[in-house]
TrEMBL record:
Transmembrane stretches, start-end: 94-118
Cross-referenced PANTHER family: ANTI-SIGMA-K FACTOR RSKA
Boundaries of every Anti-sigma K factor RskA C-terminal domain copy: 101-224
Keyword Transmembrane helix appears in the UniProt entry: yes
Protein name, as recorded: Anti-sigma factor
Lineage: Bacteria, Pseudomonadati, Pseudomonadota, Alphaproteobacteria, Rhodobacterales
InterPro entries, per the entry: Anti-sigma-K/W_factor, RskA_C
Domain of life: Bacteria
Keywords associated with the record: Membrane, Transmembrane, Transmembrane helix
Length: 233
């Protein structure tokens, strides 16, 4: 077994633990949604998740293939964490000897499947939309398979009583509105049409300060807050 797994829990950063939980499939609900969005948008956090995928995959090096007994997954679910997904990680540890090699193989199989899913959700296009002084930073990532553009407001204060609108500028053409960013959460998702997807490659994204509800004219009317080049993921 790899020595990489022998890391004291105190040495883990908060992001490390979150990445490990995401890799092992221990998150659920809004925590899962937020972590998956962040893995798509935040390259550093995405790399942490991939590192944990590799660490967990290495657990199979010293384990001979074993077919888990029928109903084992249901038994683990019912007995190990009836209240909270985190209890499964705390009780199983790195290699749950009390459950035997069959359970370990089952956990490894699930981990590898999650790793494949994360790779399938890798961004097709990305953009770091930033003000010149980096007082505002917005990250965007588009996944072709889902047709979803995920946007995260990372740095900067929002103006009370105003909205921030996202724009796509392709081939020097007039800006096209992609929509208004959410106020109650850092994350916003937009469904991108097939026609719009063709404009992403080599384009530019920008965010502008607009009246509530967005620009009334279909073009930016307020200050351009930040701009960023779209690059391949």
């Amino acid at each position: 077994m790899s020595d990489d797994m022998d890391i004291p829990e105190d040495d883990f950063s908060r992001d490390d633990m979150l990445a490990a939980e995401l890799s092992l499939g221990l998150l659920s609900g809004e925590d899962l949604v937020q972590a998956e969005r962040r893995a798509r948008i935040d390259r550093v956090f995405g790399d942490l998740v991939e590192d944990w995928d590799m660490r967990f995959a290495q657990m199979s090096d010293d384990i001979a293939p074993v077919t888990p007994p029928k109903g084992l997954l249901r038994k683990i679910t019912n007995e190990a964490y009836p209240d909270s997904p985190k209890r499964l990680w705390q009780q199983l540890g790195i290699l749950p000897a009390f459950l035997g090699a069959g359970a370990a193989a089952l956990v490894l199989f699930a981990t590898l499947q999650i790793g494949i899913l994360m790779q399938a959700n890798a961004p097709t296009f990305e953009a770091q939309i930033a003000a010149e002084d980096e007082s505002i930073i917005v990250a965007a990532a588009f996944v072709e398979d889902s047709g979803v553009l995920s946007v995260e407001w990372r740095v900067g204060d929002r103006v009370e009583g105003r909205d921030v609108e996202l724009w796509l500028i392709a081939d020097g053409n007039a800006p096209v509105s992609l929509g208004v960013l959410n106020k109650g959460t850092k994350f916003t998702e937009f469904a991108i049409s097939q026609d719009m997807r063709r404009l992403l490659a080599g384009g530019v994204m920008a965010v502008s300060d607009e009246p509530l509800g967005g620009s009334p004219t279909g073009a930016p009317t307020g200050t351009i807050l930040a701009v960023g080049q779209i690059t391949a993921g």
